[in-house]
């Protein structure tokens, strides 16, 4: 389904490949057998700083190397809906130590969640980069929203000082959502009747090369119309901006009912690969869709049997090997039954095949996000131990 891609030898982490393997020598990583990596640091711990629970991690690297770790700070319980803020901690030493917690978004007694941060590095007005934080708000539970009793809106704020201060929030719901709820807003009269809505979760993306260089892209998902069995009212989509956030364009819906919680990464030709959770559960594997036009249209969805999944979020990011070879990295729980065994995998062919992977943590683990540190190490921010903590760990290929 990715006709433009060149197949290469799967040389990282035991990648499985049905095509002939090239004989050219390349970097091969050492075998590592630990199930818990050393030097892991707790970034968000339940009960700290006035929040009973922390969930839904997202992380990005600023120009200069500062890491910014976001999460939902849930004040009263670990449920998805309630008094939820988006909180932030930063690290200037490659994740070894973290700043005191600050609040990036507070929607009063209601929900602000699904943080999707991304740095815009191509706006000439901001030569040091500008941080976008795209998020959702809600005033009712997901069940009530899905049943048409409320909607979820889409907003963003920006920062030019690494999250110390933030712009006024901008509501982009009419541009990137399709709700039919004129009682909430007279402009919400879309026949598509989108109800539930969630950004990625995890970091968003800026295209770095090709025709679409500079495009900001946010992976997302929605439900449409009344609830259907096996969550078939859910589908993934995305939205993007080519003018540094002045306007936003909705991408087409991915044609797989039940596709949900999506993450995206740039392919080596400047396109986008979307990697989605299969909420319907008909197959306990990740779903992949490629867009040669960086979100303007999607090729057919592939069920990736290389990526088992227990119906949980996962994270994906671009990286390069020490030899300069572009690869994709993906992390999620390596199970079809439980949220456990957090495992990172490598693809050298833009998602056509994936390595068997390396287990990062053998115990309870769930949502995660990936970042590439200034020193080239891979960083993972993830939930573990039945959602008791969100920790950070880094390592090399």
From TrEMBL:
**Catalytic activity, reaction form:** Hydrolysis of alpha-(2->3)-, alpha-(2->6)-, alpha-(2->8)- glycosidic linkages of terminal sialic acid residues in oligosaccharides, glycoproteins, glycolipids, colominic acid and synthetic substrates
Organism superkingdom = Bacteria
Where's the Sialidase domain?
65-380
InterPro entries, per database record: Sialidase (IPR011040), Sialidase_fam (IPR026856), Sialidase_sf (IPR036278)
Give the CC-aspect GO terms.
cytoplasm; membrane
Q: Does the keyword Lipoprotein apply?
A: no
Signal sequence, start to end: 1-23
Tell me the GO BP annotations in alphabetical order: ganglioside catabolic process; oligosaccharide catabolic process
Q: Which keywords has UniProt assigned to this entry?
A: Signal
Question: What name does the UniProt record give this protein?
Answer: exo-alpha-sialidase
């Amino acid at each position: 389904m990715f006709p433009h891609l060149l197949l290469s030898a799967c040389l990282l982490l035991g990648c499985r490949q049905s095509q002939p393997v090239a004989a050219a020598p390349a970097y091969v990583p050492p075998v590592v057998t630990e199930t818990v990596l050393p030097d892991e640091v707790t970034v968000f711990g339940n009960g700290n700083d006035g929040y009973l629970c922390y969930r839904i991690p997202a992380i990005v690297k600023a120009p200069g190397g500062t890491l910014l770790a976001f999460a939902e700070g849930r004040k009263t319980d670990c449920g998805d809906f309630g008094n939820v803020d988006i909180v932030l901690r930063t690290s200037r030493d490659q994740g070894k130590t973290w700043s005191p917690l600050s609040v990036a978004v507070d929607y009063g007694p209601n929900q602000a969640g699904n943080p999707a941060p991304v740095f815009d590095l191509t706006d000439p007005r901001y030569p040091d980069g500008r941080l976008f934080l795209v998020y959702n708000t809600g005033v009712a539970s997901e069940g009530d929203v899905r049943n048409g009793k409320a909607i979820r809106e889409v907003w963003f704020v920006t920062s030019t000082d690494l999250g110390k201060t933030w712009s006024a929030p901008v509501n982009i719901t009419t541009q990137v959502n399709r709700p039919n709820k004129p009682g909430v807003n007279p402009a919400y009269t879309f026949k598509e009747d989108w109800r539930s809505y969630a950004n990625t979760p995890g970091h968003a993306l800026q295209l770095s090369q090709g025709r679409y260089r500079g495009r900001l892209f946010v992976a997302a998902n929605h439900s449409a119309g009344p609830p259907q069995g096996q969550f078939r009212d859910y589908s993934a989509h995305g939205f993007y901006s080519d003018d540094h956030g002045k306007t936003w364009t909705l991408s087409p819906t991915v044609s797989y009912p039940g596709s949900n919680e999506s993450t995206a990464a740039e392919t080596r030709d400047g396109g986008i690969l979307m990697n989605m959770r299969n909420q319907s559960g008909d197959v306990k594997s990740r779903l992949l869709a490629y867009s040669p036009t960086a979100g303007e249209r999607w090729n057919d969805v592939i069920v990736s049997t290389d990526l088992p999944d227990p119906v949980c979020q996962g994270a994906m990011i671009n990286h390069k090997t020490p030899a300069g070879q572009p690869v994709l990295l993906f992390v999620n729980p390596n199970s079809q039954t439980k949220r456990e065994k957090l495992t990172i995998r490598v693809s050298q062919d833009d998602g056509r095949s994936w390595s068997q992977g390396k287990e990062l943590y053998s115990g309870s683990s769930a949502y995660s996000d990936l970042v590439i540190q200034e020193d080239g190490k891979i960083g993972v921010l993830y939930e573990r131990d039945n959602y008791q903590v969100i920790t950070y760990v880094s390592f090399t290929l």
